[in-house]
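thread from #wetlab-drylab

HS: before we spend reagent money on co-crystallization trials with pyridoxal-5'-phosphate, can we at least see a predicted complex? here's what I'd submit
DV: go for it
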Amino acid sequence: MQEITRILHSLPIDPLTGAISVPIYQTATFVQEAPGENKGFDYARSNNPTRQVLESLIATLEHGRRGLAFASGLAAIDCVLKLLETGDEIVAVDDIYGGSFRLFTHVYEKFGVKVHYVDASDPNEVLKVLSPKTRLVWLETPTNPTLKIADIEAISRFAHAAGALVVVDNTFASPALQRPLTLGADIVLHSATKYLAGHSDVIAGLLATRDEVLGDRLKFFQNACGGILGPWDSWLTIRGIETLPLRMEAHCRNAFAVAQALTQHEAVAEVFYPGLPSHKNHVVAARQQTGFGGVVSFTLKEDTTAAALAFVTSTKLFKLAESLGGVKSLLCHPATMTHKSIPAEKRRAAGVKDSLIRLSCGIEGAADLVEDVRFALNALGQLTVEAEQSLHH
Ligand SMILES: *Cc1c(COP(=O)(O)O)cnc(C)c1O
């Protein structure tokens, strides 16, 4: 069965009324016939029928056994970290999502959890730092904002041999393009805020696990710590996922067109997109993904914050905002936005140059997005010429 058919028909028809849309069970509690005798629901933190549909859906999408839904991507990440004990170590990708870095550093380090950051685009770099203390290998692929690719299969083999679990933040690819559990990962996580919900209208996080025992442990922490997703936001996320494969096709098509246009423009220095044959791990991406995603990053020949700011304020369709993965195109300037709190030298060393710009290509017409980017790049040339002329007068 094709993926879109499988997704749509895995959603249950409401047994009570035949409603084809999943009902929103806006309730905190469930009436019991006798103490402990109920219809599978007792209190909505532990279980809610609308959330349960979403949780089964993410398990289905990721080819896992258990799914869990949280109030945000970070709440999902936090739940995974609850598996750790003092003295445990994490090996994580060096250009990890900023919020994950903050959680590791400012919340979990004080409980004695140690994190080693490595360039996971080479699996041997992961192998080098694995130790008997490593409990989790934390991958993101593609990464944000430089679109590095990690070989999930190779790294999972190394990690499992060392007795560690593999966690993949699959936010950028989405399960429409990449299914880490089928490549050896143990836990997949999502900021469903991005492609899964897909309309920039909800904050949500999801987990899926390859086995039931691990899923049940995480469900224990979900209930014990309480960062669950509410029924309305669960419904919105289900509704978004119904069109995920269609949207991802458009995101990929548009990103590819924009990436190509960027490589052809004289104002552009480097283009980061796993779909370009020039990308360091294009071959790995082509093997483990069925599409290359909707995010493209690039730097300018004039590698200055001023040039980047001129670009990000002159596009018309790409709106300046944090976040990504929505139907409408967004762009951001990591150096002054998402990566602002990282010292400039450290940020540049991680590949986030002053002029780096991240584009989240929406589902608009490809030609319109290409024109928008070209217009802003051409205007940039003009701005630069004007700036130079004023220098000579
Ligand atoms: C946005 C994001 C997160 C955090 O998710 P929230 O829903 O904002 O809490 C985690 N990982 C990646 C890769 C993200 O882009």
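DV: The mean pLDDT is 95.
HS: ok that's useful, forwarding to the group
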